[in-house]
Design goal:
Layout (H helix, E strand, L loop, with lengths): L1 H17 L8 E11 L5 E9 L8 E8 L2 H9 L5 E3 L5 E4 L1 H6 L2 H9 L8 E5 L4 H4 L10 H9 L13 H8 L7 E8 L2 E11 L2 E7 L3 H8 L5 E8 L16 E19 L4 E15 L8 H29 L6 H7 L8 H7 L4 E13 L5
Parallel strand pairs: 1-4, 1-5, 5-6, 6-7, 12-13
Antiparallel strand pairs: 1-2, 2-3, 7-8, 8-9, 10-11, 11-12
Length: 376
Amino acid sequence: MRKLTIMIFSTMLFLSSCLPTLQLEDLGVITSQGVDMTEKDEIEITMSVLQFQANSTSPTTIVSGVGSTIKGAVEDAGQKVSQQLVPGKLELEIYSKEVAEKGIQPYLDTLRRDANIPDTLFLAVAEEKAKDIFHIKEEYISTNIGEFLHGLIQPGSEQRLFPGISINKFSTYINNEGIDPIAPIIGLREGTPVITGIALFKDDKMKGQLPIEFEHYFTLNEGTVREDLVEFELPMEPFTEYLPKGSGDEEKLKIVALIEEGNGKIKLKDKKALKFDTNIKIVLNLLEISRQYKLDDPKAIAQLEKEIEKQTKSQYEDILKYLKELNTDIFGYGMIYRTNKKGGKLTDKEWDEKYPNIDVTFNVKVDIVRHGTVNR
């Protein structure tokens, strides 16, 4: 209710400054929208619209339109409702996978030219069609679809979900040589929209994806991890001396931990040889472990730290190998190279040729500061 009140107040301010001749009931405020391509290569817009009509049975309605341009599609949608559609509260734009792979720069340009679109607008990619995300059964969610989707991307600073990518941040990355953007992928699981993956872009085109379980490898590098749950499955063999005899025959030691603090720093070690160091520091609070373990033994804790470091390093190496195959520099090694280059200039073409040949050493340091519940 509080969020709805804020929405109404914001819309009234918008109304008083931009549309003084209209009543609040005459407006349909777009809060989220999805962009798809039809079989005829036309643009299809699906919008979650906040409405204020007294006789309305729901605070939001879903409306779609088709056109050769974004503006044309919105105008087509507007003919299907009795209110004037306004974007003053637009918080999220979702692109179908097809649209994202073709490139979203034209849609970003349209949004950036509209003074009513906030810089805090978030971007996302749908697993398949964007419109599928909007047409879900209301019983699967606890609020209206527009508010639900925005909360999925940015639920609040106290429980930040990866990755909240604003239009401003995305545009900055695609216009900055030496770094490429990412965006969350939203799919449906049992009828409910959830973040399922990480879309990897080269400039404005989606080139690949990784599962959302890999999110902390990116946020660690940015130094933005706080209170983030992670799971590890480690080979059992290195821990045998710290396990009670006859306590199980599992092949993996499963661990759940909370990242209390994490940060990463990239250093250019040899500019000519394109050698970099990526230093990752992680402070973990151990919450759960699948076997009895000598948690009071400092050597046992040190062994856990060592194996987590080894696995994290290996995973970073695998991710970078995949990114180099896509020639997408998500971690921003090109920016570090550019700042160390005479004149500080680097073209996309130059870095595209160099990036697949960079040599990165990942140095991972893990500290387990305390531990919690242990399964028995």
